[in-house]
């Protein structure tokens, strides 16, 4: 994440007209031995092992938080209190309570002109942003159904080693929170409609894994000892969701889908059309126009590299695709513009809080035999 | 269905070596005015408006039942009692109780050398039959997860007219029973594992539809009057399933998937590989071999027209695809061979009964707030 | 071919309304030992080892000629002279001179109400017939360029055995005449424009092959002796073509395209759109509409199983594909209708003759260092 | 190109371990009014309107030449003479004579430790680099045939305006030189085999175009006056090629392929396998293994984002694709490493010279009625 974020901060103003020019001032990290090299590589002017130094530095305007989820709350609250704009990676926090506190702080800060954004960067994929625009413009008509999957396979191998991502204390959640969160956010954003209830099931298909010599996550095998450790988070999450207004959606987040590397798929079916996306082909959007002349209907593969597509005009000629890191660069673009224009960027912490409530409701439903469970806001929010 | 079945009976022995040669003797139907023309077109020697004539005819060996589900039980029982082999279209019956009675009769008849088969013809798609063989041979390793969808779109239009298929009294069930049944059967057959429990949700996304002048089903628009009628079956079914041994599967059957014409999809993910199929490309099977050399892994599009693929050697040279009706022809091939060899064909009525129990459990789960619900066999069966 | 043709004759009137009902009367063949079994399997009432018996039989109306190319001329001329309608497989003949004689005979017979058709059956693929209709209706606008390939791979293995298809004396030509002929016909038919000149290159990439014990063709390995025999036809043909009006096309026919099983591809690019087809996905047509709203343009995958698509309404519901043999069934449908209606079916022998002239021009160009070579009709034709 | 190149120079050392760290010192350009802003945006420390300043600056080690082709020779010769390493964009020059002179200079400079590289950056697409490795390792066996296309559509619209790229004096060549050059280079590089002879045809399908108010190229419409101007380069090039050893390839470069945005396709067919690529899906390589078990053969879609794939390990987790600009970043990586290691990078000027000779031979063949024409090196080279 550090590599992707710093690349975005270095690159955004080189391709987009921004009201302000980012500078990478201080990289905060825990390991003093590797920090200087990282700062050199990523282009930061200085380093610190105390994140408080960043929050307190009067020269710093924006704090970008890529730390594990259990530290998000503390850093974010301090940064907002100190008047820094905040980009906080997803998930916003490891619990709904923490997320509520952060969202409240962001609301309060916004009143002071301080901006907050949560890092659901996939929203900035041109194809998905274009899909959302089509839905908003009525291209699909009345929404009939939603389908969302996030399929990976790096845990299908029972001997893939244990990592901190599979430890509930550190990671908070498994496939549900890590990748399921993305498709929850995307569906709500593209349809413009919150999820109100869910019925879900979680599973840990491979319940123990070899201990890794070092716990570096994401498939790094490291030195593996003979002992097996307990996986304490889900590796598979299946759930149905009901959106405000009644539309049903099927959701799946799994790391057991052998052969699917990063198949983050969203499909919106409507009365007059559909849009469908798969991140494994991130430069394409499939659209179906049910109002096209009979005989000529079918899914159209739109190669979202035309000037008409969001973000695309800043880059290469038609037909030349973008990569994963562009989603972060676009996130920076939108944040910096919001700061410059004095507007609130999206996704807000409230958006991220709602995602977290959906995930919590899936867990609650799972614990209740998968019964339909409401995604309830707090009373305080209901009063607003 | 009549067109497809009669084509299969006329064609099977022209391409496959069969121990017996089918003859189309009597077409039974309700409408005396159209019956003769239908028999002429389909190649039957005679006709009757009393199905009993077929069952009683000593010259007839096989009864092929394509009538609506509410008549299956009576005809089947009579035919089996009369010593006829029976091919009964799916769903086996409109209720579990009826299906149980039929399965019991089939078991009893089998003891007398009378064969029964239920028409889940998709099993005879070469790509799916090959996928099953791969799973059976261990290609995917230990199964980790299952994914099955049957997506159609002919009800996404709110003004598609009412038909008997949308009337619970006549059709018994909607998307769940009509198309969901196929993917339930396929998953159980390919994995060789029954579904033991489900958590499901049904919906009728478009609850009223224009009355049709005539009720002919499957999108036929006919004359539509102004009045709207109540749809009394589901048009969308979402459910999770737990297979014996614990594997989870996500299932979806819907007629709201705008743009998806006949996307019957099954994907089996395992520890060492995957197989994936979509009926919209019925001559292809996607397979993933996790044991292939690093760097060369990926989904392989197998064009299942090689001599090694089930049924394919009887047809055309490599690379020349088959169509929908071949699934029926292959069904006839397998039935006639079973009759000739004195073996029991598949899917048995017991297989079909279990499918029906799964569907019933989905409905029960839906009525219970989508709670996990066991697919319970009767005590009698448990004793067997 | 016999299996496919007889299937078509048995099946056409079962799905289409025809003015006449075909009956399979006499199967002519050379091997008296296998003939009776073949007639039984294919559904013929009788057999003969003298093709003349067929031509002379007053009960026979249509002669369907599936013999090797070197016998087409004699049988066709006799059949037409005897007042039989003729379906002659492609290539029409093994030389332009023979084809000219046959085309002249067909023209003369047409004046007497006798119909002739050459078996370029791919024209009857619904997707291709629909593509042609779109081009005719102006969907692609002014044609800018044409691209056609027929890629197979069964000769990429240097040890695939010798067959009669690789012997110039028997087969006349190799990849060019056998598969290249199809794409030449399709391009001329879809664009409605004849090819006027070509620049081509032929090659025999694998010049010797193991002798097969029996020479049965198309990849059948049979018993292979140690000796290698000379391949006397091309296995690869590359050519550029200029259509009347000046449009350029690139053509390729090869049996060296490892992994391509039956990739017969045609793409027409125009000023306002494109159509593209690949027989490996024969139920799909890709269409591109350059007049669609900016941002929504892309290739649309039309699943040509809708009632609006040629031939499709006679078969299955939307989304249920057809197979290779349907192209023959549709050919029979069109021929029988033409006979019933007293019209001339297409492709005519003149169409087939022009294909043959194009192939001959490719060979002439190859012999002349690939120089552009005119496809010249005879003086007689120029006078007509 | 300036945007892509400067991005690469800024980014390479952030993701790859390089022996030297690039700094962007001086941007040379013609327009003093826009130069400062461009330098600011692209991250250059200074600017000049005299390219000689760059060549003469003792602080500068590398000169990156992105100017139009008619200036390449002069700048390159000066830079090499001054002891600067040179990255020169393709085409190396506008004539074979110029390219010969440059290649000779590069050879001479190499003896002094000065490195030269020509910007055929597509070689650095991970999928293509991996495809080459597979061919080199024998994956496809003996090469049987080659197929290469570069399809674009921005000139299919007859009213797309005139640009300098369509003016022979400025651009030297059209589709052949601009995009055809890429696939010529790729085929030679992947197969490791030079093209020895060609038979080709060029065309200008749309011979006149509206004059543009400003001539900015690549589809920019600008202000279009009523007058139409003559297009003096080809917009379509078709040719066959014979590689050393005799393998045939079919080539096509066109800007008339309506709907194809950047379909740069290369396919290598061999005795035991194939590799196929399309830049519209630049993160995928299709591979076919003819030695796989019968029944399991088919094209495998390799998602070239695994650590085993060239360049991929430096970027994102498996399944997260790269974009167009990465090809330039990888080019810089390879050049800087070559400089650091004292080796000669690829493609050399000699490689680029041979590409240019192939293009010249295509033009010569076209002028000679498309006859096969040798790609002849000069006598001097033959002696080497």
Automatic annotation (TrEMBL), chains A, B, C, D:
This is Gfo/Idh/MocA family protein. It comes from the Bacteria. The keyword Oxidoreductase applies. The keyword Signal does not apply. It comes from Brachybacterium rhamnosum. Keywords: NAD, Oxidoreductase. Residues 2-110 form the Gfo/Idh/MocA-like oxidoreductase N-terminal domain. Residues 132-275 form the GFO/IDH/MocA-like oxidoreductase domain.
């Amino acid at each position: 994440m550090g590599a992707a974020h710093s690349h975005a901060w270095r690159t955004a103003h080189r391709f987009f007209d921004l009201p302000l020019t980012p500078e990478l001032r201080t990289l905060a990290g825990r390991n003093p031995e590797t920090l200087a090299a990282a700062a050199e590589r990523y282009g930061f002017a200085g380093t610190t092992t105390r994140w408080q130094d960043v929050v307190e530095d009067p020269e710093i305007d924006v704090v970008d938080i890529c730390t594990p989820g259990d530290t998000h709350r503390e850093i974010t609250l301090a940064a907002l209190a100190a008047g820094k704009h905040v980009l906080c990676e997803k998930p916003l926090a490891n619990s709904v309570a923490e997320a509520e506190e952060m969202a409240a702080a962001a609301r309060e800060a916004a009143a002071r002109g301080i901006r907050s954004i949560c890092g659901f960067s996939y929203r900035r994929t041109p194809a998905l942003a274009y899909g959302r625009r089509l839905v908003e413009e009525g291209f699909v008509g009345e929404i009939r159904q939603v389908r969302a999957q996030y399929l990976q396979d790096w845990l299908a191998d029972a001997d893939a080693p244990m990592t901190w991502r599979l430890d509930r204390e550190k990671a908070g959640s498994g496939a549900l929170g890590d990748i399921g969160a993305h498709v929850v956010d995307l569906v709500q954003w593209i349809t413009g409609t919150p999820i109100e209830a869910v019925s879900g099931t979680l599973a840990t298909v491979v319940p123990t894994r070899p201990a890794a010599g070092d716990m570096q996550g994401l498939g790094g095998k490291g030195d593996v000892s003979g002992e097996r450790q307990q996986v304490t988070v889900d590796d598979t999450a299946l759930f149905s969701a009901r959106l405000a207004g009644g539309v049903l959606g099927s959701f799946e987040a799994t790391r057991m889908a052998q052969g699917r590397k990063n198949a983050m798929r969203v499909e919106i079916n409507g009365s007059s059309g559909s849009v469908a996306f798969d991140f494994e082909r991130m430069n394409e959007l499939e659209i179906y126009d049910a109002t096209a002349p009979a005989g000529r209907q079918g899914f159209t593969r739109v190669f979202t590299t035309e000037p008409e597509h969001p973000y695309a005009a800043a880059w290469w000629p038609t037909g030349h695709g973008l990569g994963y890191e562009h989603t972060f660069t676009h996130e920076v673009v939108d944040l910096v513009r919001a700061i410059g224009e004095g507007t609130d960027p999206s996704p807000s912490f409230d958006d991220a809080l709602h995602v977290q409530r959906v995930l919590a409701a899936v867990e609650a439903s799972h614990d209740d035999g998968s019964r339909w469970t409401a995604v309830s806001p707090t009373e305080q929010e209901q009063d607003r």
